[in-house]
Design a protein that fits this description.
There is one protein chain. By secondary structure, this protein is α/β, with parallel strands linked by helices. The strands form 2 sheets. The chain has a 7-stranded parallel beta sheet, sandwiched between helices. Strands 2-1-3-4-5 form a 5-stranded parallel beta sheet. It contains 12 helices and 12 strands. Strand 7, helix 8 and strand 8 form a beta-alpha-beta unit. It has 2 domains: 128 residues, Rossmann fold (3-Layer(aba) Sandwich), CATH 3.40.50.720; 182 residues, 3-Layer(aba) Sandwich (Rossmann fold).
Length: 322
């Protein structure tokens, strides 16, 4: 069987595939364009792809032989799952192994914004520091504040759990109720408006879907406290970036920590660059050795299971198996 891997992933996953199949890996240090994915995927039985690959209906319809699309990510908004399902193609993802890594990036952004870490680092490097100053770069303490989690799934729950040492009240917004987190952490399920109005830190952990696209726009930002911070490690399009940039410019909110951008895979929005009250990271949520090795292993296992005619551990469209 022939397998296409659209970018080099950690060896743990590649080895598993090479031991079993004829594997073609794109070794170029860039993403494949749509035409290239079609050209190289046409004669393949399986594909392991990245969140930066556009696997839309056009691509899927050209991959006549494909038996499984294994995404090297937990998010799968890059794939037209409906089109795959119509053709009976299983789509798999990598939940869990990157949960703590991503929750840590959310927390890094919480502290970096509230305690002005990135701004302070830049100030020192530019030789601005002339000794302790009573009014220099005052921020806000996180301890004892209210944390609002939008999307209380794996990552949202991990972010909430990590707040325990900081003595925070937790509000959450999610479609289904999460009784376990309520019992464990005293988290309270509320409507989105109330979460926005009462939280000191709002952290986004929903997947990008038709429902969540633009979920945080000007009218939502307007509800937030002037002293509050917005953290986005979900997907860029969950937030209306223009509205956020305006809210940061006008100090409508205190700051933001951003790991994901609407213009990915092309890059970030340059309008952020002149703002002191935003901390920007280059989509680093799962960027740890442990998480990426685990994702490679899991993405390979998912793909192998389907080719062996077995049920993969993590499938996003299980209805194709019935
Ligand atoms: P998950 O366990 O599926 O959690 C998603 C949560 O969002 C669920 O609790 C879901 O619950 C809720 N949700 C979905 N649609 C909603 C809606 N319309 N309104 C309110 N809540 C909604 O996924 P996860 O592993 O935590 O990952 C979440 C997302 O993080 C991924 O999809 C990905 O986009 C992003 N991510 C980013 C990075 C990074 O590098 N920055 C890394 C990993 C993941 P209900 O369906 O019950 O509402
Ligand atoms: C990363 O953003 C993922 O969805 O795994
Ligand atoms: C600060 O460094 C302090 O000692 O209060």
């Amino acid at each position: 069987m022939k397998v296409l891997v659209t970018r080099e992933i950690p060896e743990a996953g590649l080895k598993k595939l090479r031991d079993r199949y004829d594997v073609e890996v794109n070794t170029k240090p860039r993403n494949l364009r749509k035409e290239e994915i079609i050209e190289r995927g046409k004669d393949k039985d399986a594909m392991l792809c990245l969140l930066t690959d556009t696997i839309d209906e056009e691509v899927i319809s050209e991959l006549d032989q494909i038996k499984v699309i294994s995404n090297y990510a937990v998010g799968y908004d890059n794939i037209d799952v409906e089109a795959a399902t119509e053709r009976g193609i299983p789509v798999t993802n990598t939940p869990g192994v990157l949960t703590d890594a991503t929750a840590e990036i959310a927390w890094s952004l919480i502290f970096s914004t509230a305690r002005r870490i990135a701004e302070g680092d830049k100030f020192v490097r530019e030789d601005g520091f002339e000794g302790w100053d009573p009014t220099l770069m005052l921020g806000r303490e996180v301890t004892g504040k209210t944390l609002g989690i939008i999307g209380m799934g794996n990552i949202g729950t991990a972010v909430a759990r990590k707040s325990v040492g900081f003595d925070m009240d937790i509000l959450y917004y999610n479609r289904s109720r999460k009784e376990k987190v309520e019992e464990e952490l005293g988290a309270k399920k509320v409507e989105l408006d109330r979460l926005l109005e009462e939280s000191d830190i709002v952290s986004l952990h929903v997947p990008l879907t038709e429902e969540t696209e633009g979920m945080i726009s000007w009218s939502e930002l307007e509800r937030m406290k002037e002293t509050a911070y917005l953290i986005n490690t979900a997907r860029g399009e969950v937030v209306n970036e223009e509205a956020l940039i305006e809210a940061l410019h006008s100090k409508r909110i205190a700051g933001a920590g951003v790991d994901v951008y609407a213009d990915e895979p092309y890059g970030a929005n340059p309008d952020y660059y002149d703002l002191d009250n935003v901390v920007l990271t280059p989509h680093l949520g799962s960027a740890t050795h442990r998480a990426r090795n685990g994702m490679a292993d899991m993405a390979a296992d998912n793909l192998i299971s389907v080719l062996k005619g077995e049920r993969p551990e993590h499938i996003v469209n299980p209805e194709v198996l019935r």
